[in-house]
Amino acid sequence: MNMETFEQHYTAMRQTIEKHMPNADMALIDQAVEYANVKHQFQKRKDGSPYIIHPLAVAEIVAEMGLDMDAILGALLHDCIEDTDASHEDIEKLFGTTVAELVEGVTKLTRANFSTSEQAQMENLRKMFMAMSKDIRVVLIKIADRLHNMRTMQYQTPEKQTKKCRETMDVYAPLAHRLGMQKIKWELEDTALRYLAPAEYNEITSYLLAHKDQDESFMRTIQEKITQRLTAMGIQNTTYGRIKHVYSIYRKMQSQGKTMGELYDIYAFRVIVNSIPDCYNVLGHVHDLFNLVPGRFKDYISTPKPNMYQSLHTTVIGSQGIPFEVQIRTWQMHETAEYGVAAHWKYKQGSGGGTEKDFEWVRRLLESQQDSDAEEFVQSLKIDMFDDEVFVYTPKGRIVSLPAGSTPIDFAYAIHSGVGNAMIGAKINNRIANIDTKLKNGDIVEILTSKSAKGPSRDWLNICMSNQARTKIKQWFKKEKREENIVHGRASFESEMKRSSLPLSALSDPELEPQLLRKLSFDNWDDMYAAIGYGGLTATKAVGRIRDDIAKAIKAQTAEKIPQNPLRMKPDSELVLRNRHGVNGVIVEDIDSCMIKFAKCCTPVPGDPIVGFITKGFGVSIHRADCPNAQNREDPRQAARWVRVRWSVEEDQPFDTTLELDCITRDGLLLDVATVMSTARVRVKELNGKDLPGGRSTFTVRFEVKNVAELESVRKKLLNIRDVIGSRRGQN
Ligand code: MN
């Protein structure tokens, strides 16, 4: 192991920590260094040096930012979970929960992929980055990590260089800017440019090198002029000139279409003073010393930039006719400008405050900023705000932002309603996943579709999180499934009526019906059922709108005592609501919960092969498969309304059925039939006889059986009665 290099980095880190944190627990730092060193002992950097140099360098940058002890420990251990056998629990045991969580957070960012091919998506990329970091210190450690990796980029392959530098330009530098960390932002940009546009980078840097003496003498002249004046006026100041950073010169060249030699505006001077009044005094002296360039003065002290940057900016022209910018600020503003959000910890530590978990700094910033730019900053900075958003990728790398808790259903509808409607499944990170899986930041989501997909299921309305998905699913039901909507809508409407103890007969009361429909703003009941069915109106709301009208009508009728037209509660025995377990006897395939009635023409009972027909407004009507009324199933005009159904019977559940008996008329026959029925121990609900011409008669018997076997045994007994000569199921 190259001890010299280790010593160099260790010493540099230690000195930086001691400078910013005189009371730091160095024994604890050493423990973390030792732990990381042991864990990374078999790893080497690309240049062959021991791996521990990297965490040491990152910790130094984090200390230089002024972050706290936990962040420095986190920086030292930041690659331990990702690269070694260290676990969250190990780190937690040795260094505490906060440090373990910081390392965990950095690891998550390391594993995520922050790239997208679309320029318009950059903002989402940065949001995703922030969303994945629950603690702002995670972002700062990761930026420090990237900074050191950029500094040692020369050892990487060209492919890796391009990829990392792109990512630095797209994500890290803008984030550093948003967080107000100028210095780091500049270094990230300049280093990235060196690999992304080497020719231009070299043009600029060699020009600057060639003109170094010239530039320095120019800057010295200006600096002396300013310092002299200020000192003479008794204003304590630190004044220096610098060349703007390479990337900003590069951007100026690009946007103004100029070569390096044609570009003047490359110098910037900084005057740092002790107080805000001094700032404005300095401004007056600068404008007195040099010629002002109109329209370039900016007061970021009274109106700070969204990232909390404060300074006075002005551009002036010196005696040589070269324009230059002067930035005037206090020391505190300077710290903030250099270190941004991190400067917060510096102040905190100075004033002896505890650990800052709720980003008071950010909050203060938010309160002081009102313009839209600030809002944008808030959107991109305030980590808590991303709790309600999740960012995922399409397989092609497009980022889709969804409400937190979203599922592949939401994703599919965010892509296109056609994708949602044709969805048959989903893959998350290349693995088949349930469509109700909650998506996580950075997931790659692929929707599996099929042309023969049946469209969304009603359950999806409860699973999806986004209004967009919900609206699109409802639209689909509204358009594609009117008949089914009517069935569903009617079922929930009628059950709501029953729950409110309102008689269904009110709906068809000739006097009341038009009034109720008007109240509901529908032309007919089917339209309203359809609206409830697709979710455009809730049953509760619908019933609520007409409740009073019905109640009033009932009251009026009771008072007037008109028995001819009673709005009575009629237990509608044919209409039964099937619940999820199918206790009412029949499961209709593909329709979740709907009304069922057993067709009177054939009165099916369990054991009979059956089919279902979606009626207009009366639910699904169940016929025996051999019922004459069920023989038009192939008719293309009707085919869509025939649905597959099957029995789902609980024990001892009775079913109404009807038999018609052909008889030769004689006295006492009715009594014989009644006697057979009672000895067979079946419940008779209706027994009618009717004389036919030619000495014949028919008896219609409606009674309850459990299944077709019981029905057949009853039928056999009835056929044994003298003068009963035939029988038919159902009634005609
Ligand atoms: Mn690292």
Short structural summary:
With 732 residues, the protein is α+β, with helices and mostly antiparallel strands. Mean pLDDT is 83; it is low at 348-385 and 561-583.
Secondary-structure map with pairings?
Layout: H1 3-20, H2 26-39, H3 53-65, H4 69-76, H5 80-83, H6 88-95, H7 97-111, H8 122-132, H9 136-151, H10 158-178, H11 182-196, H12 198-210, H13 212-232, E1 238-243, H14 246-256, E2 267-273, H15 276-289, E3 291-292, E4 298-299, E5 312-317, E6 323-330, H16 331-339, H17 343-350, H18 360-368, H19 372-381, E7 389-393, E8 399-403, H20 408-415, H21 417-421, E9 423-428, E10 431-433, E11 445-449, H22 460-463, H23 467-480, H24 482-499, H25 513-520, H26 525-534, H27 539-560, E12 576-577, E13 585-588, E14 595-598, E15 610-614, E16 620-624, E17 642-643, E18 645-648, E19 655-664, H28 669-679, E20 684-692, E21 696-705, H29 708-719, E22 724-729
Parallel strand pairs: 2-6, 14-16
Antiparallel strand pairs: 1-2, 3-5, 4-5, 5-6, 7-8, 9-10, 9-11, 12-14, 13-18, 15-16, 15-17, 19-21, 19-22, 20-21
Helix pairs in contact: 1-3, 2-4, 3-4, 3-9, 4-7, 4-9, 6-7, 7-9, 8-10, 9-10, 9-11, 10-11, 11-12, 12-14, 13-15, 20-23, 23-26, 24-26, 24-27, 25-27
The chain binds manganese (II) ion (MN).
Residues 54, 78-79, 145 line the site of manganese (II) ion.
